[in-house]
Design a protein that fits this description.
The complex is a heterodimer of chains A (538) and B (342). Chain A has 538 residues and is α+β, with helices and mostly antiparallel strands. Chain A has 18 helices and 26 strands. Classes of the chains: A alpha+beta (538), B mainly alpha (342).
């Protein structure tokens, strides 16, 4: 899309991201320092932590702690996709390529140091300078960075300005409304203390300093983390518990036993579907469920001899029975997904349901007959047993059953270990293969651009100039109504061209014992476990 | 066997000690190349499925993973010689810190399991040998076979599901998170630190957490000891000196207690070195089953993450431990029996 058109989209007037009301007016308290009079509680999880220094993290295990230990400029409130201020009082797009935030006054890190715009600038500069392979900054901050041929990522000259202690201005190299959403993710936008964190290397996990509701008191990698109330915190997210213990488990079965035996107060990520079903019948614990955002989908090799035929892809989509997959492979612990975008995200539709309706082999046969394609079509379907949990096999078998029972496909199922899988699916080993996605930032764009632009991140060969243009357009405007309209168009294109077939969206499941309160409040698609909302009253 | 080195115990020890170096080099080399032959690398393990192949390649380039393998190998050997095991790729920890922080848990588990194995295996083995082909012998032999043959994760699960709940025993971890937080880490061995703290509640907490994992792992080795001791006691009681003693009118029970039992236990010492390797292998499975924060569990995680440096470091530590224990056993044997000083 042309620059002039983008500017027009933004309009002559400044488009303000309404963050002034970032202070929640709910009962979470506010304004007071510290908090945390409640009893300590224990969270059990199978997530692993890569790094507690934001410069080295791009994973859920790390961000779960980081959301509670650091502030970002903007953040996502529970059960919302509208961002609000965290360390920022307000943020705005004065023009399509400029994003400016004003910090709240008087904020401090847990060590008592002032949090200023200089810390914000330093945080971005060091994350990019360190360019840790496990860090999100070099992948998500493309609007303010440049990547050289040798892989070196550098911050654009003058990309971040701090005219005073409370103002930060980002100069983007292209109109990018998703930038504000990226800043909610700690791996890309957490603010660190410039006097504590080295500029050119990561800080040891045990030594990290943040300005969030909690501070880190102990960290034993792979074993446990202990968080205590940050007395210097003056934001709205007042902690209810004085201490939160996070206990790490290597196996879901061990986590389930720990939840049953009361060794943890909350079990969150990731219990297996059979374990969840089993715990639902246990009177000693409560299984709480919120909307999720983790999805599974089947990708077509659009350049392969089978997948290059659009009618074949459409016919498969026509017989694809998501209800059966959710029920037979996952014991009903996941929801059928009828679009690349899960429900709850702005602009999400049920494009595949609209396009294909109920699973219908007769309609699928007609699609193939009309295209003159002989049946059964030989189809090699790939999946991996070592990355998406034990139920991936059940899903693969269910898909094989559905396709073969239609009489239109002759399926050969193939599986291989994840490391090998990643390589060979790109080399065309499968006509269709299973993948999963977890969003980087809470915006619908993160379910469209990554799948539809130039073959998607999985590089399946699908290209559609119309989709590329639409993605550029939605990224270049902050008009939410217009964006949602474009999101709808993109989902329709996906359903029509079928570069992939969405399968299911997971739920955000937490299991908690007696006396726990507030767990349901934080189970939302953002997958942020907000420790400050949870309390224990035994 | 000749005694060419008769009286040369120091020389024997030196020879055995020098053999440790090539053994460790072979292990290091094997681990290095096996890891790299396996599909994937730390970059794809960490970021695969999230970023494009081009971005993955850029990271490989930046990390030097595209360097010639032989160069990487010699760089690695050079760093190991300097005792520099580097930093883990996947969670940013110095490898030696990983060993320090998790080695204590593995040591605690293996030592407790070993002690239990001795306490269970030796008396039962002696009993089975003493009452050969009787009901107790059959029962003990069956028990020994079962404990040795049953998969660790299965035994662990049975204990977690059916023993822990009625007894109120914990099923995972080395202690409650609150105890781990409260006990000051002086030695990085939680059990010892708990004792040093003098906090009886902490000691009790650590011991109750240790019980089921130690029993699970101990039973595996106890099965070996039962069979070993039984066979040795049978051989010993059939030896000439026992027959001679009985011919002189000394009762069989007295001969067994005073002479046969003691001699039957000597070969057990030899086997201890081998069993230590078995214990470490078993510890990997036991730690995974009981979420025990030891080196075995970390090793599994790092293998999944293709974390070359971490896996190489931990395997090296395991190898050194086994080799040194073997060396120690050889030296003890040489002290007990001069015939082995070849």
């Amino acid at each position: 899309m042309k620059r002039k058109k983008l500017l027009a989209l933004f309009g002559a007037a400044t488009l303000v991201v309404s963050l002034a009301a970032c202070g929640d007016d709910d009962d979470s308290g506010g304004g007071g320092a510290g908090g945390g009079e409640g009893e300590p509680w224990i969270l059990g999880t199978t997530d692993t932590v890569i790094s507690l220094d934001p410069a080295g993290s791009y994973d859920l295990g790390s961000s779960t702690l980081e959301y509670n230990l650091y502030q970002t400029l903007v953040t996502v409130p529970p059960n919302s996709t509208e961002i609000v201020g965290d360390a920022a009082e307000s943020c705005e797009y004065p023009d399509p390529k400029t994003f400016t935030c004003t910090l709240k006054e008087g904020q401090k890190f847990s060590n008592g140091n002032d949090l200023t715009s200089s810390d914000v600038k330093y945080s971005f500069e060091r994350s990019i300078a360190i360019q840790d392979v496990n860090g999100a900054a070099i992948y998500l901050l493309g609007s303010i960075t440049d990547t050289a041929a040798d892989g070196t990522v550098t911050l654009n000259e003058g990309a971040i300005e701090t005219p005073d202690d409370t103002t930060v201005t980002f100069h983007l190299d292209k109109p990018d409304t998703t930038f504000q959403y990226v800043l909610t993710y700690p791996g890309a936008g957490a603010i660190v203390d410039e006097d504590s964190f080295p500029a050119d290397e990561k800080l040891n996990d045990e030594e990290i300093i943040g300005s969030g509701p909690y501070k880190l008191s102990q960290y034993k990698a792979g074993d446990q983390a202990v968080l205590e109330v940050n007395e210097e915190y003056t934001g709205e997210n007042t902690a209810k518990a004085a201490q939160v213990f996070v206990k790490y488990y290597s196996e879901p079965s061990a986590l389930k036993l720990a939840a049953e035996n009361g060794e943890v107060d909350v079990a969150w990520r990731s219990l297996s579907p059979p374990d969840i079903a089993d715990l639902e019948g246990n009177d000693d614990v409560t299984v709480a469920t919120g909307e999720g955002s983790e999805i599974r989908y089947w990708v077509w090799d659009v350049e392969g001899p089978v997948g290059k035929q659009t009618p074949v892809r459409q016919a498969a989509a026509q017989v694809f029975d998501r209800e059966s997959i959710a029920e037979n492979a996952y014991d009903g612990t996941v929801d059928p997904l009828y679009s690349t975008v899960p429900p709850g995200y702005p602009g999400a539709t049920e494009a595949y349901k609209d396009a294909y309706g109920e699973p219908d082999p007769a309609k699928a046969k007609k699609i193939l007959d009309d295209a003159g394609i002989k049946t059964p079509v030989d189809l090699t379907v790939g999946w991996t047993p070592t990355h998406y949990g034990p139920n991936a096999e059940d899903e693969a078998n269910e898909v094989e059953r559905q396709l073969e029972e239609s009489g239109l496909f002759d399926v050969t199922l193939k599986s291989t270990e994840w490391e090998q899988y990643q390589t060979i699916y790109r080399e065309g080993a499968y006509d269709m293969f299973l993948l999963g996605w977890f969003p980087d930032y809470p915006d619908t764009d993160d379910y469209l651009s990554v799948f539809l632009v130039d073959g998607g991140f999985y590089q399946n060969g699908y290209t559609n100039p119309e989709a590329n243009e639409l993605v550029a357009a939605e990224q270049g405007t902050d008009d939410q109504a217009q964006r949602e309209e474009i999101f709808g168009q993109l989902q329709d294109i996906a359903a029509r061209d079928v570069p992939m077939i969405p399968s299911w969206v997971g739920k955000n499941v937490g299991v908690y014992g007696a006396g726990m309160e507030g767990v349901e409040d934080t189970l939302d698609p953002a997958f942020i476990f907000r420790f400050w909302l949870v309390s224990k009253n035994s | 066997m000749t005694r060419s080195g008769a009286g040369s115990l120091p020389r024997y020890i030196l020879q055995r000690a020098l053999l440790v170096i090539p053994m460790i080099w072979v292990i290091l080399t094997l681990v290095f190349f096996v890891l790299r032959v396996a599909p994937g690398d730390p970059v794809s393990a960490a970021l695969g499925g999230r970023v494009s192949e081009d971005a993955l390649d850029e990271r490989r380039e930046a990390l030097g993973l595209n360097e010639p393998l032989i160069k990487q190998y010699f760089d690695y050997l050079y760093s190991v010689i300097r005792l520099d095991f580097g930093t883990t790729f996947s969670d940013n920890q110095p490898v030696l810190h990983v060993v320090r922080d998790n080695g204590g848990a593995t040591l605690t588990l293996t030592m407790a399991a070993f002690l239990l194995a001795l306490l269970i295996g030796i008396p039962l083995g002696l009993l089975a040998g003493r009452f050969r082909d009787t009901v107790p012998d059959v029962v003990i032999r069956l028990f020994g076979i079962l404990t040795y043959a049953a998969p660790i994760f299965f035994v662990g699960y049975l204990l977690q599901a059916y023993v822990a709940p009625p007894l109120g025993l914990p099923t995972s971890g080395q202690a409650t998170p609150i105890t781990v937080f409260a006990v000051e880490p002086k030695t990085h061995i939680l059990l010892i630190d708990a004792f040093l703290s003098g906090d009886t509640a902490a000691i009790e907490d650590v011991l109750t957490h240790l019980l089921l994992p130690a029993v699970t792992l101990g039973l595996l080795v106890a099965g070996v000891f039962i069979r070993l001791v039984r066979v040795n006691i049978l051989q010993t009681t059939q030896s000439d000196y026992v027959e001679a003693a009985e011919a002189r009118g000394i009762s069989r029970g007295k001969v067994s207690r005073r002479h046969a039992f003691r001699n039957a236990l000597v070969p057990v010492i030899t086997v201890i070195g081998l069993q230590f390797a078995l214990l470490l292998g078993g510890a990997v499975l036991t730690e995974s089953t009981f979420n025990w924060p030891g080196l075995g569990q970390k090793l599994v995680e790092y293998i999944n993450d293709r974390d070359y440096g971490a896996v190489q470091g931990i395997v090296t530590i395991f190898a050194v431990a086994v080799v040194l224990i073997s060396l120690l056993v050889d030296v003890i044997n040489a002290l007990i029996d001069p015939r082995v000083r070849y």
